[in-house]
Design a protein that fits this description.
homodimer
Chain lengths: 131, 131
């Protein structure tokens, strides 16, 4: 398997991580994802890790990188489906994933992203009326 | 990796196949998917195979089985993201995947499922008005 598929769902992109990540795969995911955000002008990225039973510091760092890259491209990242054991490990590893929002599942993640977009639009409207 | 994740998106379920399938994984996917269709009363299943570069007769049969199982549970199956080379191989293998609808990507697959649901509702309405 060379690439992790990125699915476009309306304004958002969805990535399901199912396989063990290694350096090359992580790099190609970062490249593909940033290219897709730019191409579709996506406002949000959902990363589902419900099938990951272990998240080590490598994957943790990769997720943090993806979130940071998305942010500078004006897209929010939401991590969904984290298993309880993974949450425990992450905190034990000292990785609290700053800058990444989480949601229980993809549906709630989408709702979260839609709220963000709605809030953005509202604040833009307010700015507009003040002009 | 033990299980392929199944993501609930509104009335539909989304499965992204990224890894090489083997007997056990295919069986657990069938079990999980039928259980989820029943639990959520889902009306549609989207199977994305955009990252598969090869679809052999084993996967072809598995997809056909999933579609048949979904159908008896009153859910439509749409296969999305098939690579051109895969389409060529499938036809050469003599597998035309009867009973499975296909769509270019997940977004179009969702539109297709929504059309089906809309049509179902309309025909139910018509039946209702005739009573």
């Amino acid at each position: 398997m060379d690439r992790i598929p990125i699915l476009k769902m309306g304004d958002f992109l969805l990535v399901t991580i199912q396989v063990d990540m290694h350096d090359e795969l992580a790099l190609s995911l970062q490249e593909d994802l940033t290219a897709r955000i730019a191409r579709h002008a996506s406002r949000g990225v959902l990363i589902d890790i419900s099938s990951l039973e272990i998240v080590d510091s490598f994957i943790g760092r990769m997720l943090a990188n993806i979130a940071a890259m998305s942010r500078v491209l004006d897209a929010q990242t939401v991590l969904t489906g984290m298993q309880p054991a993974v949450a425990i490990t992450l905190v034990e590893l000292g990785m609290s994933l700053p800058g990444i929002r989480t949601a229980l599942n993809v549906e709630r993640g989408m709702e979260l992203l839609q709220e963000f977009m709605h809030r953005d639009t509202e604040s833009e409207d307010n700015n507009g009326s003040e002009e």
